[in-house]
Amino acid sequence: MGGMAVNDKAIGLLDQYEIEVLRTRKGRGAILCDSDKGTLIFMEYQGPKEKVKVQSRLLEQIADSGTLPVEQILPNREGELLTKDTDGVSYILKTHFEGRECNIQDMQECLRGVRTLAKLHNVMHLEGECPQMPVFQPEKEYEKHNRELKRVRRYLREKGQKNRFELYLQQEYDYFLDQAREIFQEWSAFVMPQDYEFLRESGTFCHGDYQYHNIIETGTGQAVIHFEKCVMDDQIRDLYLFMRKLLEKSNWSKELGDRLLKTYSAIRPLPARSFVALYYRLAYPEKFWKIVNFYYNSGKAWIPEKNLEKLQKVVAQEKQKQEFLSAVFRTL
Fold first, then answer.
1. What are phi and psi of 26, to 5 degrees?
2. How far apart are alpha carbons 171 and 69 in whole angstroms?
3. Environment class of residue 133 by beta-carbon count within 10 Å: exposed (0-12), middle (13-18) or buried (19+)?
4. pLDDT level of residue 7 (50, 70, 90 thresholds)
5. Contact partners, residue 145, CB within 8 Å, separation at least 6
6. Which H, E and C letters describe the chain, residue by residue?
7. Which tens digits make up the pLDDT trace of 173-224?
8. Which residues pair with residue 31 across a beta bridge?
9. Residue 6's pLDDT is what?
10. CA distance to 35, 59, 99, 139, 234, per residue, from 204 (Å)
């Protein structure tokens, strides 16, 4: 959020809301604002204008269902969800929860996070309300990833002097690229146009960024925040993201994977197609792609040691990951 000037300018925008500001303080990339309507959070909004309307509508729907607490976006005096400063930067004002992030080391909290997700998914539908909204197509994303992976491999092959990271990357490259291609081909053959039609007609949404830091332990239960990346997609996307983070931290523990899946399914049974989609999302070498993408798009003159460590970890965990996938998804 830049320097103090930006904050002053942003704080000035709060006059455009029907609230009485008592005091403001800096939060993470946002302004926390104590008001007569409780603590609110004022933050920059980078998405398109249409998207914020959908996000707000989704949040209202979840709140109306009484399922669990989620943030709400407050309109300004003009009834608009976005408020712009003189430079055309957009801001939104949201309700805020006091509490702490879900603790990824605490098994019970993580299982609670999965239950929260299943309950959330039960009410994240805007049937027939978003006919224009694009449906996310993962295999198109993976196709793009694979093109990038090929481009970087070519770059690496032609590069003269290679540092430690590049030598190690080159040595492991073909294995992961072959894996990425194979999964893309299999998944493309599996996906049907009616899968996307169904998502559009039923108005099925995902949170889009369901990670432990967007789950808040409030003392009376869990609340969920930061729906900015909400998207029409198979809801397995959220479960995949949450599970992958936990599995990477636990060396792909089969017991953990089973518990997470059972906990989710007890509230929201997984359709067979979603179970297969979860397999493909977990099987795709996303972490490898991320490391390669970061390397290629940042200054290559100096590669942080951390990148080499991350790559070594991905390679070291590969055997456990494959064992996990065959054990958990062997019925496929």
1. -85, 130
2. 48
3. middle
4. low
5. 180, 284, 286, 289, 293
6. CCCHHHHHHHHHHHHHCCCCEEEEEEECCEEEEEECCEEEEEEECCCCHHHHHHHHHHHHHHHHHCCCCECCEECCCCCCCCEECCCCCEEEEEECCCCEECCCCCHHHHHHHHHHHHHHHHCCECCCCCCCCCECCHHHHHHHHHHHHHHHHHHHHHCCCCCHHHHHHHHHHHHHHHHHHHHHHHHHHHCCHHHHHHHHHHCEEECCCCCHHHEEECCCCEEECCCCCCEECCCHHHHHHHHHHHHHHCCCCHHHHHHHHHHHHHHCCCCHHHHHHHHHHHHCCHHHHHHHHHHHHCCCCCCCHHHHHHHHHHHHHHHHHHHHHHHHCCCC
7. 999 999 999 999 999 999 998 999 999 999 999 999 999 999 999 989 999 9
8. 26, 42
9. 46
10. 34, 13, 29, 18, 7
Partners of 35 in the beta sheet?
21, 38
